[in-house]
C-alpha cells in the first residue's frame, strides 16, 4: 500500500483528495499497490468535510509516520512549504509539488536532497498548468536535440 499525505487543502489539495477518493478503484486497477490518503495537513478546520478524520495540524505527525510514502505539497509559496518539503525528503518520503515558486527558487536544492535521500522530488504539476511535459522532454524525447522552449510565463514562473 502507498500512503499519501496532502499538505494544504485549498483548490489543488482538495482536488487531489477528491481524485484519490472518487477514482480510488480505478487507480488501484492501474498501479501495483493500492494508493490511500492517510493525512491532510491544514491550519484551518473542515468539520463538514468528508475527509475530516484525516486532518492534522502538526507536520511532525506526517514526518514521523513511517507508513507515509508520498507527500503532496500544495501549500504554495516558498517559506513553510520549503521547510515541510525539506523535512519530508530528509525523512525518506517522496514529494510531489504543484508549487511553482518553490520549484523556481529551490528546485535544484530539493532535487539534490531527494537524490541524497534516495527518494523522488517530482514537480510536473507546477509546469505548464499540469500538462505532462517534463517527462516527455527527458524520457520520450531524450534522443532529440532540443535547443529552445518557448512559452508565456506568469509571475511565479
Describe the structure.
Strands 3-2-1-4-5-6 form a 6-stranded parallel beta sheet, with helices on both faces. The protein has helices at 11-22, 24-30, 59-63, 80-90, 100-117, 134-140; strands at 2-7, 35-41, 55-56, 68-73, 94-97, 121-122. The N and C termini lie far apart (35 Å). α4 (80-90) packs parallel to α5. α4 (80-90) links the parallel β4 and β5 (94-97). It is an alpha/beta fold. The protein is 38% helix and 17% strand.
For the structure shown, list the relevant keywords.
six-stranded parallel sheet, alpha/beta, 6 helices, 6 strands, 157 residues, globular
Explain briefly what this protein structure is.
With 157 residues, the chain is an alpha/beta fold. Helices cover 38% and strands 17% of the residues.
